[in-house]
Amino acid sequence: MSILAALKNSNVIPQKYRTMSKEELEQKVIDAKEKWGTRLFIPAHHYQKDEVVKFADATGDSLQLAQISAANKEAEFIVFCGVHFMAETADILTTESQKVYLPDMRAGCSMADMADIHQTGRAWDKLQELFGDTILPLTYVNSTAAIKAFVGKHGGATVTSSNAEKMVKWAFEQKERILFLPDQHLGRNTAFTLGIGLDEMAVWNPIDNTIEYDGDYAKIKVILWKGHCSVHENFTVQNVIDTRNQYPNMKIIVHPECCREVVELADLAGSTNYILKAIESAELGSEWAIGTEMNLVNRIIENHPDKKIISLNPNMCPCMTMNRIDLPHLVWCLDTLEDDKHIIKVDKLTASKAIFALEKMLNYA
What we know:
By secondary structure, this protein is an alpha/beta fold. The protein is built from 17 helices and 16 strands. The strands form 4 sheets. The chain has a 6-stranded mixed sheet with strand order 7-6-8-11-9-10, with helices on both faces. A 4-stranded mixed sheet has the order 1-4-5-16. The longest helix has 17 residues, at 348-364.
């Protein structure tokens, strides 16, 4: 058997977990939590399925959960219910005595995968030729450990959707231009909010290894990596128009991973935590259309029966890669903790450079 075939087979969930009843699976999670006690910690991202969130010790966004995991020194086994880059960040921030696991090793992020380290190195060389030493790289935390390490190596920092404005301001105090990876929409929306014109933003196409911009390159202040979130890009201007027509009293709130045109037409835009707080503090009976991941929207609807809440896109599906983590995979992971079958480990060199970028953000923002 080839190495690739072995790896593929090792990530195929045994059939017995697929044939267990929901009650059996839930009892096995309960038993595992009782067995391991405080040695086991299960963080779950906001976009996870309810069947997984039900057993989470903490819910939140990716960086928040990684920080909580790192602060929990009693936790020996951290079973991260999210996607690959999130588990990597948790491994980077936790100690050597803590182990981070991903219940389904296939749970990736299409946005993070849109910027690999080879493309980034190639782009950086070309951009240095075009602009010289005038660029500081910033990367959304929704990126691989290798990209975080690249940014750290070149003096840059990570950003979240909550602190992106602060970090972009900081970056412009360091250099004349920024390269923003891997989500062009968060980069564009953040820069625009800070007063940078759309005509001062270019797009880097990693496939063609070219810069997409009509005009004098000297005018460019922001270079946006041509990446996006496959979920948030599905919220459209037509969705906004339809919602306004059907629900004239409804406020529209969206995540800044949505495209510029949608953000501009929305009433409010902000991070997941921003959205949660806005709905929480909203008046009773208020009406909201939310432009973010469907599992989270459904949970918000359930938690706020006193308000009328819908998804901005009525045909929206949950994040498919995030939804690879389900109850059977969680149980399989818990059953095999001591086998390190689902372990996520970032090599020390990559981690040391990545943590430099993370700490820049944490110290400044």
